[in-house]
Protein 1
Amino acid sequence: MTELAAPDRAVAPPILNESFTGYYRGHAKRTLGETGTVRAAQREGALAGVALLEQLESEVGCVSCIFVGNAHRR
């Protein structure tokens, strides 16, 4: 997994669009732009999935959203 800085997050929307519809898609797009930590998983050089992570306290965080491309689901 690698971290996606804000300028690099433009690679994520195609997978996000495969994963969500309606309200959830809009929420995920907003969260992608606002979240401090975004991690990407790659498989064979292609983006497979993305995790949006939120820091709640100094030692406490949560996973806000995870989305995985159709080609990488079982």
Protein 2
Amino acid sequence: MVDFQQKEFTNQIITNLKNITGLNVYGSYPEGTSSFPLATIAITNLPTKFDIGYNELNLSITCTLNLWGSKQTEVTDFLTAIEKNMIGYGFTRNTPTNIYKDNAVNKFTCSEIFRISYNRITGKFERGL
């Protein structure tokens, strides 16, 4: 079996999102930033060796993407480009888009959830459920 490498996967997603959008992309929200627009990506559901079912052949991986921008249309445009790319890699999107103004940073934001499966026998990703 081929174990899933979370750090490498997260870095690959971050690099990919930077390349397609030109956004500043982080693994977590950078406190005190003034560099907008930006995106964060987090692996929010990943089985570990201690989880029941870790020995299953397919791991279900959930990625939560957060976008921030000065305008609602800016967030929508980046989300459209990102979604197209993520779906091209086999992810499925599992949330409806809800863009709102985050008063804490005075920017528009949305949070999207993407899923993909990792086949531990082949070491390849498969379309998420």
Protein 3
Amino acid sequence: MNGHEKIVDAEQAYMQDKIENLPLELKPDETLVLDISNTTIHHSNIIFDKLSLTGYDVRKQLNNEESAIIVNVKQ
């Protein structure tokens, strides 16, 4: 990842209903990393879909120890 990186707990953001506002703060050289390790599959899919439909470059990074949704501004 290049530029600046922000790491946010996705479950906390989802529960506070702030997920839609988070990517609006992103600049083209920034990356938002949403930690979905403690998030249910249903919530992580909702978060992924909302961000994808908003027009951001979104991908999931999954492994045994950590899971994340990586968000960048589409260029």
